# Entry
Amino acid sequence: MKRKEVMVLIRKIIHIDEKRCNGCGLCAAACHEGAIAMINGKAKLIRDDYCDGLGDCLPSCPTGAIEIKEREAIPYNEEAVKREQESPYLPGKHGKNTK
Ligand code: SF4
# Structure
């Protein structure tokens, strides 16, 4: 079987400090790409390629738990986001998935 190569680069991407997260879910609701989901009462970045690194979620966070960092990540994938947005099973939709 042929291995698929995955491109990784240094880019801006959100980082969520779990200790500061109160589980309100506002960031997941604010993320247009569905990159954030609520898991066990905490916000998680569920897919690097769904995060465009623009930080639309930052102003929604009442505790300042989210920041933009630069780190290795796969590139933002607009096509994957579009496919997910058309799916009724978007994990982060409205931030109420597994809370
Ligand atoms: S908005 Fe902030 S406090 Fe609320 S779930 Fe997201 S990271 Fe946690």
